[in-house]
Amino acid sequence: MTTAEMADRVLAEVGEDLSDPVYYRRNEAIDALNEAQRFFVLLTLSLEKTRTLALGAVTTWYDMLSTVPTMVLLLRVQLASTGAKVRPCRLEDLDALGSTWQTTAGAPVRYTSVGPVLAVHPRPDAGGTSLTLTCAEMPAVMYGASSPEIAAEYHPALIDYAVYRLRMKEGGQEFLKELPRFESFMAAAKKMADYVRRRLGGGAYDRLPFELG
User: What is the model's pTM?
Assistant: First the structure.
């Protein structure tokens, strides 16, 4: 189903005349569908992509948003050359190694992320080292002819959320009667998050989706 088709479904559900919408416009429905997909992906970490990060010589810190602007979380970090896992740790763990940890040279064995910034330890003393990053990422913005990036079985959940989101503008009883749609959306997100948690479990990945009730 395309985004335009889903937007028509949303407008029909809120009682709009598709040929001459008055209160809700198609762009509002598409915006709500985009919000729904972003929220779904944030809750489930279900949109996973693999990237390569070339490490610079004597460089410890990296701005991930300049490399992966759609990144939500790092799920796994490996040395590209061997596949060896680079272990996650906290910044305070690295600080506990001593004041010179940021200048220690070698092949990275640990990483930490502070917001969108990644630090590796040790840092390579020359170029030629790359990391394979497995990232949970945000979906691309949907337009009329595009389709959601999440699995097709969850597209109805996006429509439920979009109807609920549009009704917020009305408030009162119109909004309250759509709360079951939000609950349906959250139930779908929980189902997907549970699946992703099982798939990513076993220690191979560093982060898992939120527990959703």
Answer: 0.89
pLDDT of the residue at 109: 97
**Beta-sheet strands, E only, within the chain:** 48-54, 61-63, 71-79, 87-88, 110-114, 117-121, 130-137
Tokens 């939000």 belong to: 182
Is the Cβ–Cβ distance between 7 and 30 less than 8 Å?
yes
The tokens describing 178, both together, are: 């759509």
- Reading the block at residue 37, the tokens are 């997909």
Q: With the C-alpha atoms ordered 7, 12, 13, 16, is the resulting torsion angle positive or negative? A: positive
Give me the pLDDT at residue 144, please: 85
Q: Please, what sign has the CA dihedral across residues 15, 17, 18, 24?
A: negative
In this predicted model, what pLDDT tens digit does every residue of 19-69 receive, in sequence order? 887 889 999 999 999 999 999 999 999 999 999 999 999 999 999 988 899
Cα 181 from Cα 163, distance rounded (Å): 8
Give the orientation angle of helix 155-167 with respect to helix 3-13, to 10 degrees: 50
